[in-house]
Amino acid sequence: MVGTGDLGIGAAQLKTRTAPIPELAQACNPVSQKRGRRWSCLACRHRLGSLSDTAAARYDRIAQLLIPGYSSLARLGVALLATSPLGATPGASILVAGCGTGAELLEARRQRPDWRLTAIDPSPAMLEAARERLTDGPGNGDEGNSGAGITWQDARLEDLDTSTGFDGALAVLVLQGLPDDGSKLRFLTALARNLRPGGQVLLVDLMQGEKSALQEQLAAARLAFQRAAGPLGGETIANDEPLRGLTEAVHPIGSSRLAALVEAAGFSDPAPVFRALDYEGVLLQRLA
To answer: What phi and psi, each to the nearest 5 degrees, are found at residue 117?
Structure first.
């Protein structure tokens, strides 16, 4: 099993939150020191401030450097849902839970402009960053007006309750940020509740290895992969930024525990669709 020291860059700082993250002293810093705003982790993202277009772009760029295969996750997720029984129908209703800076939304607009999208995030800052990215604004390039027709909600998934249900959902790097104290099960149960029977969801998260002789090597390789990214543009990762959720504020679980949780929430057995070192993606289908 992977211990705290194996979780990745900065894992040792979970008990000393004011210490700098080792080996990656340079990276994105979207926080204005003058305003003194505090950002929550990637998955919890609970309050505060505004995240600029520039910071959102840097967030995505650094995530691509830190997480193997990150740049393909949005394309993979949309392609999977687009070929699912419900998602393949014209005008399907798709939920993006924890939409972050809008990568999955942008890809959905490219592949399936007919989809009716709902984007939720408990952080007004992240939600606004995604909204600005998908609508006309400086630095958006050809992303242009692709935010038209998207429903935006500053909310937690657990507080969302639709009358008809969604045809599919994406939740990328969200579950890993929730502790396994009932929070993960509540999130998964809310996902199932807000999907139509037969609706599918893609989960992608950092996972914890189970009794593998090579697990320590995988954890070490992930750390080496992140370190090999180098100085990341000469900026600084602070402990209070959303980027902490990529390296520190994570609660990985094993495959057997995930299987138990999704069954309890009302989903089918997880179908593996992605793996890069110890990041894994699974496709779930809500049972009738």
So the answer is: -100, 140
Q: How confident is the model at residue 12 (pLDDT cuts 50, 70, 90)?
A: very low
User: Please, are residues 279 and 206 in contact by the beta-carbon 8 Å criterion?
Assistant: yes
Res. 203 pLDDT band, cuts 50 70 90: very high
For residue range 236-273, what is the model confidence (pLDDT) as tens digits?
Answer: 454 435 555 666 678 999 999 999 999 999 999 999 99
Q: Give the pLDDT band of residue 125 (cuts 50, 70, 90).
A: confident
DSSP assignment of 112-177 equals -TT-EEEEEES-HHHHHHHHHHTSS-TT-GGGTTTTTT-EEEES-GGG---SS-EEEEEEES-GGG
User: Is residue 16 included in any domain, yes or no?
Assistant: no
- Alpha-carbon gap, residue 258 to 254, rounded angstroms: 6
Instruction: In whole angstroms, give the CA distance from residue 198 to residue 287.
Output: 6
CATH number for position 231: 3.40.50.150
Residue labelled with tokens 């679980």? 253
Q: Which of 22-26, 58-62, 117-121 has the lowest mean pLDDT?
A: 22-26
**Residue 215 belongs to domain spanning:** 34-285
Instruction: Say if 13 falls within a structural domain.
Output: no
> How far is Cα 193 from Cα 160, in angstroms, rounded to an integer?
9
d(CA 145, CA 168): 23
Number of structural domains, the chain?
A: 1
DSSP assignment of 73-89 = HHHHHHHHHHTSTTTTS
pLDDT on residue 42:
38
Contacting residues for 1 by C-beta, under 8 A, at least 6 apart = 208, 209, 210, 211, 215, 254
Give dist(CA 28, CA 54) in Å, integer: 10
